[in-house]
């Protein structure tokens, strides 16, 4: 990184440490301040409750004009998250605004865990199951959470 | 050859009328259609094929075409009177005739008649399009008592449907403004850049004194640097213009031209206005950009999507490009858009099977020596055995002029030998190859015709200095070459058309027309292979053949277009 870190990123990072969002942590790498290790707890009452999901987050050069790049590292059974961990979320695409921040985006992701939307699927197979047999889908999501998303 | 002499007479009438109407007609086409009397003469003169009778009837029943035309103007969307209404185009046509000094009173008295395959259209320059937008904005702004920047946003929101905008606005002004991303009080607070004490920009987190800031009246305030960067990215990288929202999270307020001018450098506002123009044209069903590379013109045509099974709307841009208004591919008359799409797909899928066909070399059917095709003409003569044959069907050339010989028609074999599945599939492949062969051949021949013309043109230029012929006198070559290109283009598509055509009484007329045009084209094409020093002496003959080709083309197109409009063609696939 030859270019100095923009004030915006420095401020955001500071605030993530000083006023952390409950259930969410984001820590930048020592050698790359644009790369974050993220942990998001499954929201209470959802089929992801009790799970801790790790994600990677990268701030591209044109951030905040462009949204951060985020991906689930932990396997998760969710209609809007595909096998590679990519997330289908409007604020990460068309509805991105440079006024949005890392914390707001992570909150949106946590909210997405609480409210899966099979009508706008990224993972067709999961979405199909979600629509046809929701109980079974939720059961699978719980199983996956237990199997893959436990605190280490 | 009495037919030939009478034919020439008719030609000269058509030719002179054409010549007078041709020059610099800025926007249109209609003009060509008016030689009603010369056409009936021509019908008398031409060999009496049935289509001459039907097309004669067609000339009088232009009403049905006009009904298509009027439904264009008053389509459901009620394309507004501000933009190019019907009245305006009438004026244009009159102007056209007045400009045309050569037109005499009798021609002028005739109502302009369009042929069945011609559609009304206009060509617009970027300036025309800009002023069209400006006129509409000004008119609506006046009516709604809104500033023009806001009106522009409202019009873009309703995709330039003026009536709908006014109706919805009158119905619920607040809601309309909100939906369009304007919000209230657009009349107050003209956009301006301000310095605010104690302000921190949410995007860059700068908070220094003297920081310039900007906000639209949604009050989402950011520093001007961030705003500029945001707009630059939208315009430059994302090609957005008409619907750029405020950078505030979740805000749907649309940036207006005035705010934009305030924030970004000139080069970017130019790009912004270009993009706005793009969306203006893209938003209107009746406007399309000319698809020619680097062409800046747009064409307006009233033919709607739903009409495309009944008409093939070929339009001609100022830049000389002829394209289909329906699908923007190069002119593909007489074949309707759906069939063109199908055919192209089929050819792509079957390209391997078909490839060998369009090869440049074939064997002489008599002595088997290899023959290379290096001109557009399909009349081949074997160097070795002097056998004259047709490149397309490999049949004897001598038989091509006779009435029973059908180079263009695919003869379905009798049912007996197509009983099993294998035979059937073989026959369907043969059928496809028959049409593909001819389609590809005209495409290739058109290219070869062009090559040979360019070669000949160079030789002619040399000849000019020795023979004393002037530049104008060699123009007939150019005209002939262009006619060949145009006719081969048409012929090419007649084969795709024929492939999907189911047999009925009309198909025979069609095939006759196709054959006549094909023969006319080959006769003309052949002349290009004459030694250059003979060409000067062949001027009259070449001009005659050129006119004849063009006339056969018009007859074919008029007949196919009329039947398409009247839905008398039967196709072996769904026209959908
Ligand atoms: Zn800023
Ligand atoms: Zn806003
Ligand atoms: Zn053009
Ligand atoms: Zn088309
Ligand atoms: Zn031979
Ligand atoms: Zn032939």
TrEMBL record, chain A:
The source's superkingdom equals Eukaryota
Provide the UBC core domain boundaries.
Answer: 4-150
Which catalytic residues are annotated?
Answer: 88 (glycyl thioester intermediate)
For this protein, the record's InterPro entries field holds: Ub_conjugating_enzyme, UBC, UBQ-conjugating_AS, UBQ-conjugating_enzyme/RWD
Q: Name one Pfam family in it.
A: UQ_con
- Cross-referenced SUPFAM superfamilies: UBC-like
> Any idea of its EC number?
2.3.2.23
Q: Which UniProt keywords apply?
A: ATP-binding, Nucleotide-binding, Transferase, Ubl conjugation pathway
Which GO terms fall under molecular function for this chain's record?
ATP binding; ubiquitin conjugating enzyme activity
What family is reported? Answer: Belongs to the ubiquitin-conjugating enzyme family.
* PANTHER family per the UniProt record, alphabetical: UBIQUITIN-CONJUGATING ENZYME E2 (PTHR24067)
Protein name per Swiss-Prot or TrEMBL: Ubiquitin-conjugating enzyme E2 2
What high-level taxonomic lineage is stated for the organism? Eukaryota, Fungi, Dikarya, Ascomycota, Pezizomycotina
From TrEMBL, chain B:
Task: Tell me the protein's name.
Answer: RBR-type E3 ubiquitin transferase
Entry's EC annotation: 2.3.2.31
Q: Where is this region: Disordered?
A: 1-72
GO-annotated molecular function: ubiquitin protein ligase activity; zinc ion binding
Q: Where is the signal peptide?
A: none
Sorted UniProt keywords: Metal-binding, Repeat, Transferase, Ubl conjugation pathway, Zinc, Zinc-finger
Q: What class of enzyme is it?
A: transferase
Q: Which reaction does it catalyse?
A: [E2 ubiquitin-conjugating enzyme]-S-ubiquitinyl-L-cysteine + [acceptor protein]-L-lysine = [E2 ubiquitin-conjugating enzyme]-L-cysteine + [acceptor protein]-N(6)-ubiquitinyl-L-lysine
Quote the biased-composition stretches of kind Polar residues, using this chain's numbering.
Answer: 37-55
Q: Which organism is it from?
A: Recurvomyces mirabilis
A single GO BP annotation from the record?
Answer: protein ubiquitination
Which Gene3D superfamilies does the entry link to? 1.20.120.1750, Zinc/RING finger domain, C3HC4 (zinc finger) (3.30.40.10)
């Amino acid at each position: 990184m030859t270019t100095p870190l923009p004030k915006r990123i420095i401020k955001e990072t500071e605030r993530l440490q000083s006023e952390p969002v409950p259930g969410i942590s984001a820590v930048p790498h020592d050698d790359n301040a644009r790369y974050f290790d993220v942990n998001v707890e499954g929201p209470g009452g959802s089929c992801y409750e009790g799970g801790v999901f790790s994600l990677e987050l990268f701030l591209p050069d044109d951030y905040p004009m462009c949204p951060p790049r985020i991906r689930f590292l932990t396997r998760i059974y969710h209609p809007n998250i595909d096998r590679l961990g990519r997330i289908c979320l409007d604020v990460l695409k068309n509805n991105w605004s440079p006024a949005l921040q890392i914390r707001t985006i992570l909150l949106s992701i946590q909210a997405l865990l609480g409210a899966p939307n099979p009508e706008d699927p990224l993972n067709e197979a999961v979405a199909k199951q979600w629509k046809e047999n929701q109980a079974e889908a939720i059961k699978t999501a719980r199983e996956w959470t237990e199997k893959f998303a436990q605190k280490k | 050859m009495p037919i030939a002499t009478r034919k020439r007479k008719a030609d000269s009438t058509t030719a002179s009328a054409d010549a007078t109407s041709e020059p610099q007609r800025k926007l249109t086409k209609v003009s060509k259609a008016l030689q009603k009397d010369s056409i009936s003469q021509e019908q008398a003169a031409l060999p009496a094929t049935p289509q001459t009778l039907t097309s004669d009837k067609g000339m009088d029943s232009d009403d049905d075409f006009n009904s298509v035309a009027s439904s264009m103007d008053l389509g459901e969307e009620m394309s507004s009177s501000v933009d190019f209404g019907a009245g305006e185009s009438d004026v244009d046509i009159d102007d056209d005739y007045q400009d045309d000094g050569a037109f005499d009173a009798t021609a002028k008295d005739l109502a302009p008649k369009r042929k069945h395959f011609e559609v009304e259209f206009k060509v617009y320059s970027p300036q025309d399009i800009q002023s069209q937008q400006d006129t509409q904005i000004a008119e609506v702004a006046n009516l709604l008592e809104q500033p023009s920047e806001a009106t522009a946003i409202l019009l873009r929101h309703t995709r330039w449907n003026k009536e709908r905008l006014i109706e919805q606005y009158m119905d619920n002004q607040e809601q309309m403004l909100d939906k369009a991303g304007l919000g209230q009080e657009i009349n107050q607070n003209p956009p301006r850049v301000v310095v605010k004490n104690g302000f921190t920009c949410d995007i860059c987190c700068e908070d220094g004194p003297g920081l310039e800031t900007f906000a639209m009246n949604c009050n989402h305030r950011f520093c001007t640097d961030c705003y500029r960067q945001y707009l630059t990215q939208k315009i430059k990288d994302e090609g957005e213009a008409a619907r750029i929202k405020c950078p505030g999270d979740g805000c749907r307020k649309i940036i207006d031209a005035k705010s934009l001018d305030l924030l970004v450098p000139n080069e970017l506002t130019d790009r912004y206005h270009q993009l706005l123009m793009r969306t203006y044209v893209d938003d209107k069903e009746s406007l399309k950009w000319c698809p020619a590379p680097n062409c800046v013109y747009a064409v307006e045509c009233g033919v709607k999507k739903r009409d495309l099974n009944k008409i093939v709307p070929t339009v001609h841009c100022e830049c000389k490009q002829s394209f289909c208004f329906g699908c923007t591919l190069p002119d593909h008359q007489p074949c309707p858009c759906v069939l063109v799409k199908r055919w192209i797909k089929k050819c792509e899928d079957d390209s391997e099977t078909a490839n060998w066909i369009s090869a440049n070399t074939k064997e002489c059917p008599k002595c088997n020596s290899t023959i290379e095709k290096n001109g557009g003409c399909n009349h081949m003569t074997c160097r070795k055995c002097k056998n004259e044959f047709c490149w397309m069907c490999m049949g004897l050339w001598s038989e091509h002029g006779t009435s029973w010989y059908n180079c263009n028609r695919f003869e379905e074999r009798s049912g007996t030998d197509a009983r099993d599945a294998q035979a059937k599939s073989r026959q369907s492949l043969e059928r496809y190859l028959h049409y593909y062969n001819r389609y590809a051949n005209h495409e290739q021949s058109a290219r070869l015709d062009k090559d040979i013309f360019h070669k000949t043109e160079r030789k002619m230029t040399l000849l000019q200095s020795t023979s004393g012929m002037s530049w104008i006198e060699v123009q007939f070559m150019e005209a002939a070459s262009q006619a060949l290109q145009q006719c081969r283009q048409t012929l090419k598509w007649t084969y795709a058309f024929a492939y999907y055509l189911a047999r009925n009484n009309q198909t025979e007329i069609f095939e006759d027309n196709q054959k006549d045009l094909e023969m006319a084209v080959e006769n003309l094409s052949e002349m290009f292979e004459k030694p250059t020093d003979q060409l000067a002496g062949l001027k009259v003959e070449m001009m005659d053949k050129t006119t004849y080709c063009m006339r056969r083309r018009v007859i074919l197109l008029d007949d196919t277009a009329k039947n398409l409009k009247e839905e008398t063609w039967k196709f072996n696939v769904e026209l959908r």
